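Lab notebook page, bench 4
Experiment: in silico fold of construct C2
Operator: M.H.
Input chain length: 100 residues
Purpose: comparison with the prior construct
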Amino acid sequence: MEGHAVISHEVLASYAADAARQVGGVHELVGGPRRHRGVRVADEDGATSVELQLAVEWGAVAPDVAAEVQRRVSEYLRRTARLPSVTVDVVVVGVAATED
């Protein structure tokens, strides 16, 4: 029996969201009414792309946080979903207010 398995965008979004939330400096994923808020997954010509929209914690260096999110999400999706090619874009849309 020949065939192949396909992982839904919903599952990939869940994986990406989980990996992003583990990065220090990420306050939350934001945007969109979907279950995995702030994550959009698309496929084009056999390549998967993921966009994450997030808010960083006050005092975090946004470019450093974004770069680490890109690295972790890409690595996690390649390892867990065995994606041969994945592009991860991170959009920092805000900074969380301090709690004082």
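Observations: Residues 17 and 24 are 14 Å apart (CA to CA). Helices lie at 9-21, 62-80.
Next step: discuss at group meeting.
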